[in-house]
Specification:
The protein is α+β, with helices and mostly antiparallel strands and 346 residues long. It has two domains: 48-158, 60s Ribosomal Protein L30, Chain: A (2-Layer Sandwich); 174-333, Phosphoribosyl-aminoimidazole Synthetase, Chain A, domain 2 (Alpha-Beta Complex). It contains eight helices and 14 strands. The protein has a seven-stranded mixed beta sheet with strand order 9-11-8-12-10-13-14. A five-stranded mixed beta sheet has the order 1-2-7-5-6. Strand 5, helix 3 (111-128) and strand 6 (132-140) form a beta-alpha-beta unit. Helix 2 (77-90) packs parallel to helix 3. The chain is globular. The two termini are 38 Å apart.
């Protein structure tokens, strides 16, 4: 029997910030409470978006955004709400068709601030080529919310020939990353806490559906796509390793971490692998298609920094484990984050 460190919990069994972090506490909450209450979804991979019943290749995703502060270098809650949902659709190989937007507003919010958020949201939707076709607005009393919370739901249509899933990674696959990590989480945290990194770090928030469309030509050679948002690259790789039943190995020197992000993480005691991103993706592709996939990604601005960061271990590796080969020649396990290092960054 293998010893295991118990997850932190409250004696009164209350919701913790860590339950929304995208790591092990989130998975525990989903598996023990949410999924059993809503239906028997246990055992199935938890994808960024779901195929709608009845065929037709339609995909749907919904996401809530509670970021604080509302505005940060490189973006704001309005553009982030569009990009996040568009990207969740893209990670299932779908191009966005339409969005709905629900606003939860706090009494006392300045209308000028709300207007700025909505103008940014509308501009982001227009630039992504996806219309906002319906929505809802609610207002709650002072102190019952924090200015603006946004929920977006998106519907997309799967690209022909592209069938990707978190459970489809295979032994030998190349692991590709479309760009540097850690920019979004550190940009939001620095702005919120006044840490002084704002001049050097801007969020990478942007839509990724065109990048996925560039990979669609590789068809069945593209197995898995995931954008490493909450929980960062570590959470995304662990989810894929778990759902696919494979072992993933990455090279520390190959993972692009911008200098200012590395400095901020050193100062704050954070692991860049655990910091949220909003404008990069991880792709698991067959090894024969790795070079072509990198060329396709690098042909677009959002994939200009694409690199190969590792591979899936051959059959026989320890399923569900992610290991990093360090620059000094050692190996360390990359764990799924447990609690909440950076609350309210998306």
């Amino acid at each position: 029997m293998t010893a295991a460190c118990p997850l932190p919990y409250s004696e009164n069994e209350r919701v913790l910030l860590g339950h929304g972090a995208g790591g092990r506490l989130t998975a525990e909450l989903l598996e023990s409470l949410v999924l059993p209450a809503l239906g028997d979804g246990r055992g199935a991979p938890l994808e960024d978006a779901a195929l709608l019943p009845g065929g037709g290749g339609l995909v749907m995703s919904t996401d809530g955004f509670v970021v604080s502060p509302l505005f940060f270098p490189g973006g704001d809650i309005g553009s982030l709400a569009v990009h996040g949902t568009v990207n969740d659709l893209a990670m299932r190989g779908a191009e966005p068709v339409a969005l709905s937007v629900a606003l939860l507003l706090e009494e006392g919010l300045e209308l000028s601030e709300l207007e700025a958020v909505l103008r940014s949201l509308g501009k982001a939707a227009q630039e992504a080529g996806v219309p906002v076709i319906t929505g809802d607005t609610k207002v709650v009393g002072r102190g019952a919310a924090d200015k603006v919370f946004i929920t977006t739901t998106g519907v997309g249509r799967r690209l022909p020939g592209l069938s990707v899933s978190a459970a489809a990674a295979r032994p030998g696959d190349a692991v590709l990353l479309s760009g540097p990590i850690g920019l979004h989480g550190t940009a939001v945290l620095s702005t919120r806490e006044g840490l002084g990194f704002e001049a050097d770090i801007a969020s990478d928030t942007r839509p990724l559906h065109r990048l996925v469309a560039a990979l669609a030509g590789l068809g069945a050679d593209v197995h898995t796509l995931r954008d490493p948002t909450r929980g960062g690259l570590a959470a995304a790789l662990n989810e894929i390793a778990h759902d696919s039943g494979v072992a993933v190995e990455i090279d520390e020197g190959a993972v692009p971490v911008p200098g200012p992000v590395a400095a901020a993480c050193d100062l704050l005691g954070l692991d860049p692998l655990h910091v949220a991103n909003e404008g990069c993706l991880v792709a698991f592709v067959s090894p024969r298609a790795a070079d072509e996939a990198l060329r396709a990604m690098r042909s677009l601005p959002e994939g200009s920094g694409a690199v190969r960061i590792g591979d899936v271990a051959p059959a026989g590796g320890r399923p569900g484990r992610v290991v990093m080969r360090t620059v000094v020649g050692a190996r360390r396990v990359v764990d799924m984050p447990v609690g909440e290092q950076l609350p309210r960054i998306c």
